[in-house]
């Protein structure tokens, strides 16, 4: 065993823990051979809908060495976002990941801190942090690194904490000790498939993104198709149904990240409050919120569809 590799790996994992990451796993950087045909089939079926960005950078999406020259390792990191408080049950629903501040900047700062620590401890190491904003297959890398398995709802799931967490990557030109994948523990369970309000999980492990409520309420800029009217149970932004019904999520524990603490208004707003919210109030009450991705106009469109 290469002692420096082992030492560096232990240092990185300890640093990830110190900075509040839920888990850290490491894989050898390279081409994702198994994912390539899957991604191609998924795109050919038009399961990405109007998310045209999914078609871009196909090669880079499958090979981080094209994103970070001479990269050797992909460090995958998990950040818990499961809340301790929940919305008023009689209101328009918002996905739990969007309760607090936008996760992109919050997590990226933490990942960059790990890179700075690596440079201080080890020397001149080049790397790049990725948090859901670049063409990298985050769930595939996290699964390859043993942080969980890809569930039938296509989310990464772990036995200890379920699936309510964000995934980030740090790709570096440093050789490390590598983790192996874990086993699939979905078994014969089909809870997520059975519960999906729009039948977006077309078969185990395959999600038609263009039918997902998260797609309709966040990504789709046009009007929501009339054939799903009445099917999606007051979800205004995102959807957690396939995670809420997953048996492994009974092990979810509340996060300890102050930035993800829910905006108070988000917890107590009634349907009437949401229906009457002005653009000015929306911008003032929800600064730095993931809700801004849909913008005020998108939120109003979603609410009008639900009324």
From TrEMBL:
Is the keyword Phosphoprotein in the record? Answer: no
Where is cob(II)alamin bound in this sequence? Answer: 61, 132, 153, 156, 167, 214, 239-240
Binding of [4Fe-4S] cluster 1, residues: 186, 189, 192, 246
Binding of [4Fe-4S] cluster 2 occurs at 196, 212, 239, 242
InterPro entries recorded: 4Fe4S_Fe-S-bd, 4Fe4S_Fe_S_CS, QueG, QueG_DUF1730
For the 4Fe-4S ferredoxin-type domain, which residue ranges apply?
A: 174-206
Q: In which pathway does it act?
A: tRNA modification; tRNA-queuosine biosynthesis
Residues that, per the record, bind tRNA: 221
Q: What are the names of the required cofactors? A: cob(II)alamin; [4Fe-4S] cluster
Localization annotation: Cytoplasm
Pfam families with a match to the protein in the record? Fer4_16, QueG_DUF1730
Q: Which PROSITE patterns match?
A: 4FE4S_FER_1, 4FE4S_FER_2
Q: Which domain of life is it from?
A: Bacteria
The record's active-site residues are 132
EC class of the enzyme, as a word: oxidoreductase
Keywords associated with the record: 4Fe-4S, Cobalamin, Cobalt, Cytoplasm, Iron, Iron-sulfur, Metal-binding, Oxidoreductase, Queuosine biosynthesis, tRNA processing
EC number annotated for this UniProt entry = 1.17.99.6
Q: How is the cofactor bound?
A: Binds 2 [4Fe-4S] clusters per monomer.
Provide the catalytic activity annotation.
epoxyqueuosine(34) in tRNA + AH2 = queuosine(34) in tRNA + A + H2O
The text of the family note is: Belongs to the QueG family.
Q: What does this protein do?
A: Catalyzes the conversion of epoxyqueuosine (oQ) to queuosine (Q), which is a hypermodified base found in the wobble positions of tRNA(Asp), tRNA(Asn), tRNA(His) and tRNA(Tyr).
Quaternary organization: Monomer.
What name does this protein carry?
Answer: Epoxyqueuosine reductase
- Which source organism? Flavobacterium cheonhonense
Q: What is the lineage of its organism?
A: Bacteria, Pseudomonadati, Bacteroidota, Flavobacteriia, Flavobacteriales
């Amino acid at each position: 065993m290469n002692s420096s590799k082992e030492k560096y790996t232990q240092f990185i994992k300890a640093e990830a823990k110190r900075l509040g990451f839920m888990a850290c796993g490491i894989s050898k950087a390279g081409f994702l051979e198994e994912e390539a045909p899957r991604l191609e089939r998924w795109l050919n079926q038009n399961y990405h809908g109007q998310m045209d960005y999914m078609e871009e950078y196909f090669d880079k999406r499958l090979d981080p060495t094209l994103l970070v020259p001479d990269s050797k390792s992909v460090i995958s990191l998990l950040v818990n976002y499961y809340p301790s408080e929940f919305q008023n049950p009689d209101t328009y629903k918002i996905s739990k990941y969007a309760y607090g501040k936008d996760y992109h900047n919050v997590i990226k700062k933490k990942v960059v801190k790990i890179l700075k620590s690596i440079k201080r401890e080890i020397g001149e190491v080049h790397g790049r942090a990725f948090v859901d904003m670049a063409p990298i297959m985050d769930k595939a890398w996290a699964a390859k690194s043993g942080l969980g398995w890809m569930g039938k709802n296509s989310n990464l799931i772990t036995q200890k904490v379920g699936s309510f967490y964000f995934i980030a990557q740090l790709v570096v030109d440093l050789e490390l000790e590598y983790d192996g994948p874990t086993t699939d523990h979905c078994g014969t369970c089909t809870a997520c498939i059975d519960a999906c309000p729009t039948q977006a999980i077309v078969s185990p492990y395959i999600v038609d993104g263009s039918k997902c409520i998260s797609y309709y309420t966040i990504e789709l800029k046009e009007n929501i198709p009339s054939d799903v009217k009445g099917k999606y149970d007051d979800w205004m932004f995102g959807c957690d149904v396939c995670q809420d019904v997953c048996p492994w999520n009974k092990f979810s524990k509340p996060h300890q990240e102050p930035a993800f603490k829910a905006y108070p208004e988000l917890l107590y707003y009634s349907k009437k409050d949401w229906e009457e919210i002005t653009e000015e109030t929306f911008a003032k009450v929800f600064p730095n919120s993931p809700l801004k991705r849909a913008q005020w106009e998108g939120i109003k469109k979603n609410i009008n569809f639900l009324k």
